[in-house]
Amino acid sequence: MKIIYNSFMGGLFRTLGKFIAFIVLFLVFGYIVSSNDLKIADLIGFGTVKAWGDLDYREARAGINQRICNSSHTSCTASSSVTLYGLNTYLSYLPCTNFQCPNNERNSDFVGVFRVSASFNDNHSFDSGVMYRLWYTFQLQGLNTNQVVLNNLESINSSIFLVNHSYNTLNNATGMFTDGSTPQIYFERISASGYVRLAIVFKPNASGYHYVDTTFGLKNPDNVLSWSTMPQFKGFNSIRASAASIAYTRNSDEQAVQTNIQNNQNWIDVNYHIGQVENSVNEVNDSVNEVNDSIKGIDDYMRDDSIDNNHISAGMHDLPQTTSLTPFADFVNLPLNWIQDFMDTSNTCHNLVIPLPFVNQNLTLPCMSSFWNKLGALASLIDLVWIAVIGSRIFRMFYRLTIDVIDLDPNSFNHLSKLKEWEL
Amino acid sequence: MFGKVFLFIIKIVTSLTTILVSPLDSLITTYLPDLSSVLTSITQFMNLPISIMGWVFELVHIPPTLIAVYVVAFIARYAIIGGSAGVKYIISLYQRLKP
């Protein structure tokens, strides 16, 4: 095996091996770099979300710092907290506006425990004994000014809460992060606006699911929250399915909910100030329109059942969408197909698309044939170089092979030594 | 020309293999869909380095004919070694069994 391996890796393949090693290192490095980006998958679970920097929100401003429980749910602490009251207009003007900030700190760090306190003006009562799903969608987004598209954070989170009694108020349902990490977003531009969207309450049933969209003050300016129906509920067949697969472990969720109920007792509401209303109505309207556009985009996204979540879940990443009708034959024919691919490879120009695990991205490398075609005569020159290098090796191998076969002495013929002598 | 003949042989072999194992494939796809999925996954995964290698061939601009010749030389080398070893083994077997 060693001789075969060395032989296979000899010559051309030894050179190519180095090159491939470089490519692999490049991909690994690229993956490491790309994995440092904030990804939705990082935000699922327990942890802390912190936003800071030069914030200048017009519609909403929020730093969210959830410090709830560790990943094993055995230890929970509450840190500085900010209560984002209501799922209503209050949150349209979160603490730090242009004109008024807590403790006179403008553009300061703003962290806090996120808490939802929702009330339904239509006196909707939650059904007893029904599991509700509560989805949180945070989006702190630079909008509008000076091409501020910095770090967008969209954290989709969920908790399951069991309604044991009939309520007409949903209090203190909390978002959770399971990995204890601290995803952070940083806005470095002075002027930006954004919004926070919290809590979409889902109540699935057989034919669809009801939901309440509680985007602060923007979608529900009159504080009227009402249930809507979204048809064709096929399970959360989207990114949310990944979130659900992690967060919906019933035991941990129920434990987490219980823990959060305890934590809620300790949470401290930090004062916040409702900012002064905008100077310019037109500017507000423009921003609101942009926010609404973004909301529409999120809604479209959430309604899209065709979103492929295989790229989100690392475990599912490599599972094929469709299985071959001849899986075993494909498997058996793999070496021959490799040789075939080797020999066919340069006949067609193709991009190399490598799906990157853990991130929802593909690495697409350009077609190199078109590049060489542009070089014209230089490409032919390189052809000659390759023919000289590889052709000489092949010629040498055939020369030695021929000599040995002519002088063949069956009694002294050593296959393994010849294999080495005839190295390509 | 040589490469095309070789490719033709490879295609014949793969086609024959596919036909021969088709009953087994039917069993797997019908009764063991998970195994089918796993086999397909493995095949796809193993094909990934080859697609990368194809791109690398393009990148370094190795003529496809040269690759074909190289593969043929590689196979010829092992065929001669294996063939001669086989002949030697048969001869020795014959001499041992010779009355």
First and last CA, distance of chain B: 49 Å
Helix-strand makeup class of chain A: alpha+beta
Low-confidence stretches of chain B: none
The level of helicity of chain B is over 70%
**What gap, in angstroms, lies between the N and C termini of chain A?**
16 Å
- The helix fraction of chain A, in percent, is 25-40%
Quick check: average pLDDT of chain A? 48
Biggest beta sheet attributes of chain B: none
- Fraction of residues in β-strands of chain A: 15-25%
Oligomer: heterodimer
What can be said about the biggest beta sheet of chain A? 5 strands, antiparallel
Number of helices of chain A: 10
Please state the overall shape of chain A, judged from the principal axes of the Cα atoms: elongated
Could you tell me which chain pair has the largest interface and how many residues each side has? A-B, 63 and 62 residues
**Helix and strand pattern of chain A:** HHEEEEEEEEEEEHHHHHEEHHH
Strand order of the largest sheet of chain A: 5-4-9-10-11
Number of helices of chain B: 4
Estimate the global geometry of chain B from the Cα principal axes: flat
Question: What is the number of strand segments of chain A?
Answer: 13
What proportion of the residues of chain B form beta strands (DSSP E)? Answer: under 5%
Please write the string of helix (H) and strand (E) elements of chain B.
HHHH
